[in-house]
Structures are given as C-alpha cells and as structure tokens.
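User: What would this chain look like folded?
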Amino acid sequence: GNDFGATFTININQSEYADTQESAGIKVMLHHYEEPPLIKEYGLAIPPGSEAYISARTLSLINLSQPYFNCTSRVLRTTKTYSVVACILECHAQILDDECQCKQSTCLGSTLRS
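Assistant: Here's the prediction, encoded as structure tokens.
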C-alpha cells in the first residue's frame, strides 16, 4: 500500500511529443531481471494525470518433459536463462535472420548463427 510501497512522480513532457503520437503516458511492467520485457505486449499503460496502484507476486514454473508435456527448457543461444519470452524472441529473431539476413536492434545477444 501507500505506507510501504514505492511512489513515483513522472513528468512525461507531453508538449514535446511528436505530432504523429497517438497517445500519451507511460507503460510499466514488472519482470524478473533475467527475463526480457515485452512491454508492448504486456505493459500496463498509465495515462497522464492519473494514479496507478500495482501489486506483484512471484510465480515459478517448471516445464515437465514427456510423458507429461511436450515442452522442455531448451538451451537458448542468445541468453543464459531459459524463459518462454526469451524462447519466443529468439525464434522470431531466427526467422528474421533466416528470411532476410538481418536482425532487429532490440534482438538479444550478438549472433544467432551457430
């Protein structure tokens, strides 16, 4: 609550936004430090002039292998720690690299080639 949490006051400088900007405010996301953030997909949008109260709790998942489920924690080439998010980002980056021999500036790691 207010008594024991962190409080932030943020000046978004909306007057300096480009004319092409459709909205204003900030996006917030809490994530594990080894997990890449997907702010665009999962971030909480907070418009200017508003307050937001956010609570968090930790959740740990372990993928079971056969015969329980066909999903395991495979070794990724672009990050040390496996996560579903990191796996999805690496797969998308690999497809982009395979199709057009380029990668996004936000791509994890320095190389995707073996």
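The radius of gyration is 19 Å. If you want, I can go into more detail on any region.
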